[in-house]
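Memo to structure team: turn this sequence into structure tokens by end of day. - J.P.
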Amino acid sequence: MIIDNKWPYYFSELLIKGDPESNAAICSLWTLKEAVTKGIPLKKYAIAGNMYYNDGISYMLRTVLSNPNIRYIILCGVDITKTGESLARLFEHGMESHRIKGTAVEIDANITEEAVELVRKNVELIDMRGVVDPQKISEKLFSLQEREAFAQPQIFPLPVAEKKDTLTSEKTGMIARGKTVAEAWYKILNLVMKFGTVKKSQHSSDQKELVDLVAVVEDEDPDNPEIEKWLFFTKNDLENYYPQIMTGIVPEGTEYTYGNRLRDHGIGKNQIDYIINDLRETKYSRRAVAVTWNHEKDMKSKNPPCWVVVQALVQEGTLYLTCYIRSNDMYAAWPLNAFGLRKMQKEIAGALDTKIGPLTTVSCSAHIYGHDWNKAKEVLEKYSLPKKFTADPRGNFVISLDREQQKIIIDYYTSDMKKSETFSFALGKKTSIEIYSKLSSLDLISQIGHAADIGVELAKAEIALRHGLKYVQDEPLDLDSKI
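Reply from structure team:
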């Protein structure tokens, strides 16, 4: 029986709670739990819930161990992300080094191997994947033989999230820019974990949140995505996810998909086709917009879509795609969202015969839930982005000295290496401040690294000019090189 006749603290309104003395639990994967349990008496099952991603397996294990009356798990519903497949593999093969054997799926480290084996040996997984008919599920429930509890209750709390003080920062409009989804995601984790404000959420966990986080993916190939080792999914997982974006099909028992909202929206009109046709007719259109929000349904819904608006623009033969996301789980959802949007961007660009430009997401509430803080921290501590030179898209500066006029000369080149402007600064008491103020006001530098590099070079140039030393940009200053 349940300790104090209550479920552990980490179970909230996300689950349907039945009779804790019942032997059965229902996992409906991506199909709405309310759909598969419709008409089934609460006394016939202990608990019912969805399981969208592999992280949910650890939650399920905690549930069963906290209530050893559960001797059967009915696995049903649509298995979009193959999480049910991972669960079935756990029951069949077990785990090793806290991963399900033969997979990269992790089980939370604070759930012991002995506890997992206890579940495997005493709980029967009834695999009904694909079944969404509550009548068939009810029939299976009524056919189950009653059994005694298999152990005493064990509570395995969620990993304790380390609550560090949030560093001060701008309150809105941070940018995470990367060549690939994986690179941008790493930078997102760093920003949210470092600067996110800790606040409550409408789920059972606290969150760290940034407001209006802009993420830019510059050059991900939709057909050959780069799945770096710090991502928690595989290419196969992506292939299973894409139909939610690229088709209007709603799996039976599922409330909606983004693909359905964009390609049907209940009115039988494909908004992606509209975007393509609008831009085909008028390449400079600013009206190529698709919305997922259904005002009548979503204002009162407990599960409204997170994506709200998608807009496409064409500029100089390149298609840009922007998605506004009202609420974005930056750990578990954003990278899949980004890959799905990138795939859709290619679809639109292909139809218009344009190049694919950057993908931009604007996440109003960009958050990481407390139960994922340690995972995000582990990614940041275990991995690092490769050090590589990235050219500033706003251009470059060539610095030289006019010793006759005692001036520092700065030539500004655009990113396509066309000389645009020349600045000259006479040597004086406040030369550095004068140069700094001028360049800052022009907004010609977009990268912190580039700004720091220019600062170093200007300091070298001023020292060389004052002391008659040789100056060569990007080379160390030789203090013995008197001219």
